[in-house]
Write a structure and sequence with these properties.
Length: about 325
């Protein structure tokens, strides 16, 4: 049958009418992979549409997607995709209820999964899942190169977005030589780093800065300073007219505190519910913590949704984090 990458390349060449999908509330890797796949398919002369239940986040609206993105399948109108390509998403339900139902109903002739997360239930008739890959965009970049496409222009920029997003701008433990090699190719083939950085990073608003200031002031330490945690108070985002995207990447800053091995960030996620983000140093596997509570992710970056208010969620997480750092000592 061949390797998954080769099977995907063959399908991309032979089929037409593609729908590219990623998880809802997309981050840079999810939206970058979506855009990169769109540009690759357009390069091959294919008809393509993009779908994301949450639409395009405001802070990523600058990205050249290459094709129209819809948030309702009804908006496909007379376009009937035969192939669904799902990127950066290990769980069907993370695409949203509407698309998950379409998958369950067998709406597509082929379902391709390109991801670096492991998840259950397994879905898709062609699956290319590499848990050790730093980003889904790394795989999309490899696919494009194997099919003879340069990593230049909008495709290269979309891949680069995914690389910097999922490696913490090349600072996380998942940043291997393969990441730097691909980044170098993209830069060599014309990426304007100054322009890219200005659009991706230098676009904060004053309300977002103030919210982060409040959260920094409320950050606390536990377990002999080896665990840092911050909790978003109810109503804080509404007070400043912001949504959850304003909190993106905050949890990574908790690891910058000297001696901290685990960062815990908890925000409200509806009445009586919480969303937890976990980050760790290379020694601690926070994916195991998230998995015990029904979540997932990677060794050094994981998350979970809990049916508990934020303070209750904190009481659940702190003992688990304490067990994870036991015996490590302050660095």
């Amino acid at each position: 049958m061949g390797e998954p990458k080769d099977r995907i390349a063959r399908l991309f060449r032979e089929a037409d009418d593609f729908l590219v999908v990623a998880h809802h509330n997309p981050d840079g890797d999810a939206l970058g992979a979506t855009a990169a796949l769109a540009h690759l398919l357009l390069f091959l002369g294919k008809r393509v549409r993009l779908y994301n239940e949450s639409g395009v986040p405001e802070d990523l609206a600058w990205l050249d997607l290459g094709a129209p993105l819809i948030s309702r399948l009804a908006d496909l109108h007379d376009f009937t995709p035969r192939v669904a390509v799902i990127a950066d998403c290990a769980e069907p339900n993370r695409t949203g209820g509407e698309f998950a139902a379409a998958l369950a109903a067998g709406r597509f002739s082929h379902v391709v999964v390109i991801d670096h997360h492991t998840g259950t239930p397994v879905f898709g008739d062609i699956r290319w899942v590499e848990p050790h890959a730093a980003a889904a965009c790394l795989l999309v970049g490899e696919l494009a190169q194997s099919m003879g496409h340069d990593l230049s222009g909008p495709l290269g920029e979309a891949v680069y977005l995914g690389l910097v997003s999922d490696t913490g701008s090349f600072t996380f433990a998942n940043t291997g030589a393969d990441v730097f090699d691909m980044a170098a190719v993209i830069v060599r083939q014309g990426l304007d780093l100054d322009s890219f950085t200005a659009r991706r990073a230098n676009n904060w608003t004053l309300p977002r800065l103030h919210v982060w200031g409040e959260l920094f002031c409320g950050t606390k330490l536990a377990h002999d300073g080896q665990v840092a945690y911050a909790v978003v108070p109810d109503g804080l985002l509404e007070q400043y007219g912001l949504d959850n995207r304003a909190l993106e990447e905050f949890v990574s800053w908790l690891r910058r505190l000297r001696g901290v091995h685990v960062g815990i960030f908890i925000r409200p996620d509806g009445p009586g519910k919480s969303k937890v983000s976990l980050r760790s140093s290379s020694e601690v596997d926070v994916q195991k913590i998230a998995a015990r509570l029904g979540g997932g992710g990677h060794k050094n970056a994981a998350g979970v949704a809990l049916n508990a208010p934020v303070n209750e969620a904190l009481h659940i997480l702190l003992p688990l984090a304490g067990d994870a750092v036991k015996g490590l000592g302050r660095s």
